[in-house]
């Protein structure tokens, strides 16, 4: 059986991830994501009214026209987790394929919401929720298995495609967190077993491969956040925390710390409400009873007015805007576009890193500069990454011992960095280590 790996998107950049694996005449597509910065959008973005062709031209979603050149039929669309750079293009592209969309239960719910909000295209693909540890029979020759891993969003898995020639594993994104704040640690026992059974190819993220050592556990971020928030137990000034709205474990930590110091945690922002309410309804997280959430802009402004009136020392707002995004709650507050007035001694805690591109750096600088003009105190980088570092990658390769490796999810600096790392441990570029660019493919011999 011929096995070919096609790089559709996410091999020239971080984002718009999409990979196709052809096994004979059957094709399995992994992920269909957005590249958020290309349309100057982040978690509060609305692209529901945009056409796929415009988004492809803007390099915001994968250019899947390469699929027209491949002989075979798409049998399944498989999503590894619920971040927009992995599922955000589904409403624009999935309807072109007569195939079910398979993902974990939480990811499936997020995909369902994405499809419901789509204005241009009708997406009627069947959604199938598969839990970590379960299998799905795609065809008589192909079986899909989800293996539990950790990342900066709950319900993330490594996708294992069992073929007659061995397993093809899609590991975008993952961290080997043995002490997670939410959910179980990665299923190392199953990964070791799959490694012994035989791994033909590993398609693996390369975002942080040049960061030495191991990626710190989410437990470390919890301690950083708690150490800072609980230092201001008797402070009468405002405390704002901004983090990724999809990072449910972090939101839970912040809410619990607020509760600990006698402040009411308040989630503000449409995406904050969307991700957290879905997780809470699915009983994947338990927040303190004092937590409330508001997504609608008018309701958010009303809540901010109430906080000003009741006393800012009674609340801890958890908000969007850590990248300085236009229209995000924190940006609007700092720029004076809400009823809330920032004052000297107020504090903004950033429990997130700036996503590295010039636009984000510029926007974030502007927000911080404006906040400092009002005498606001800034606390930065109360955060750990959701992406594996070099020694985590070493451990995964050691466990799986794949015959071939395809670095993905990164620009040429990142995938090239993975190739350099791979050569250190015995892989050879062009032989069993393959650097792909968008639109290119490799036949696994």
UniProtKB/TrEMBL annotation:
Sequence ranges assigned to domain Metallo-beta-lactamase in this UniProt record: 15-232
Cofactor(s) needed by this chain: Zn(2+)
EC assignment: 3.1.-.-
GO molecular function: 5'-3' RNA exonuclease activity; RNA binding; zinc ion binding
GO biological process, one term: RNA catabolic process
Binding note for cofactor: Binds 2 Zn(2+) ions per subunit. It is not clear if Zn(2+) or Mg(2+) is physiologically important.
Binding-site residues for Zn(2+) 1, renumbered to this chain: 81, 83, 151, 173
Compartments in which it is found: Cytoplasm
One Pfam family named in its UniProt record: Lactamase_B
Superkingdom of origin organism: Archaea
Residues given in the record as Zn(2+) 2 binding sites: 85-86, 173, 409
SUPFAM superfamilies membership: Metallo-hydrolase/oxidoreductase (SSF56281)
Chain positions recorded as substrate binding sites: 383-387
Keyword list, A-Z: Cytoplasm, Exonuclease, Hydrolase, Metal-binding, Nuclease, RNA-binding, Zinc
Protein function: An RNase that has 5'-3' exonuclease activity. May be involved in RNA degradation.
Oligomer status and interactors: Homodimer.
HAMAP family for this protein: RNase_J_arch
Similarity annotation: Belongs to the metallo-beta-lactamase superfamily. RNA-metabolizing metallo-beta-lactamase-like family. Archaeal RNase J subfamily.
Entry protein name: Ribonuclease J
UniProt source species: Methanoculleus taiwanensis
